[in-house]
Amino acid sequence: MQNIDVLIIGAGPIGLACGIKARSIGLSYLIVDKGTLVNSLYHYPFSMTFFSTSDKLEIGGVPFISHNPKPTRMEALEYYRRVTSSHKLNTSLYNTVNKVEKNENGFKVNTDKFDVQAENIIVATGFYDLPHKLGIPGEDLPKVTHYYKEAHPYFDMKLAVVGAANSAVDAALECFRKGAKEVTMVIREEKIRETVKYWVKPDIENRIKEGSIKAYFDSELKAIRENEIDIKTPEENITIENDFVLAMTGYEPNYELLNNMGVEKRDEAPFAPVYDAKTMETNVEGIYLAGVICGGMETNKWFIENSRVHADIIMGHIKNKRLVIN
Predict the structure, then answer these.
(1) Could you read off the pLDDT of 45-84 as tens digits, one per residue?
(2) Domain containing residue 191
(3) Number of domains the chain is built from
(4) Residue 251 pairs with which residues in a beta bridge?
(5) What is the rounded CA–CA span in Å between residue 3 and residue 126?
(6) If you ran DSSP here, which 8-state letter would residue 25 be given?
(7) What is the maximum span of the chain, computed from C-alpha positions, in angstroms?
(8) Which residue of 161, 186, 215, 247 pairs with 172 in a disulfide if CB–CB is 3.0 to 4.6 A?
């Protein structure tokens, strides 16, 4: 069984940054991920454009050159592949972590492919893999998805989009412009969220105002059937014809994984995992958090650009602990 200083769970940008920092200070490490490299970015919509500029997405001193004012998904995938190759990072992809057991030497970790003994663990799994479920009848029908990839499948279809944040707005606008027969938004709030990208918000508001996209505000999707959906509005409950539902209701951290490791979370919203902001260490000695997972249900709190520093904080703490012991 392999023995390493640091096991990093999650091969996203922040997990890669942690690996780069570990390598730079001479720590042995391994980055494991249940999916592909930067798995969350890979599953973003094909036409997605980042809110951040390319320089704010850089890690490991590798320049990110974009041909656009804001980099695209394809450019980001290429960039992080190049970072991984340039730094010769140790990764094990398509390899799920199944069990973590604390012992006198750190942690014994069982994955799909092998067991490994790690002195420290960094959880950098983000939140994009687990969507918020609506919890309504029909949500498991094949016509329902919590992930939007592209508009083509919805051409000439009657589409319902649930949500009022960036992902829902982008999907509604693109599907409307790529030939969806009808786009209906079902929104719990009384208006489109203020956090929607500033260059997109007026567009969706104008499309709703002119009636090109129908929006039900202060409303909830209550049931989904093969050819129709039920919506609860402030005035009445209505049923409309429907072919597909995009439930863009947000995502959440893998609380099950954290719980199995013994990592506690706050009892009050936003149910963020417990950690020391000065060290990024959780209530379990030797287990650290990095990246957007730190925000719990506040998925708009941490981004690549403001959590890259977590790698430096964590590796600095691990290095200092070793100096104290020695």
Answers:
(1) 888 888 889 999 999 999 999 988 889 999 999 999 999 9
(2) 133-247
(3) 2
(4) 131
(5) 25
(6) T
(7) 70
(8) 161
